[in-house]
Amino acid sequence: MLGTLRALNKDVFIKRMKVRVVRTEDKAEHTFTWRAFRSNVYTGAALTPQSLAVAGSFLVNTAAPRQYNVFFASAAFTGQYQSLVQPLRDAWLSFLNAQNLAPNPAFAADKFTQFIQAGHTTELHTAISNGFFWRSGDYQLEFIIETDSLAKDISRQWRFSISAQDEQALRLNVITLIRELCNLPVTYNFANKEYLPA
Question: Which terminal residue of the chain, N or C, has fewer Cβ atoms less than 10 Å from its own Cβ?
Answer without folding.
Answer: C
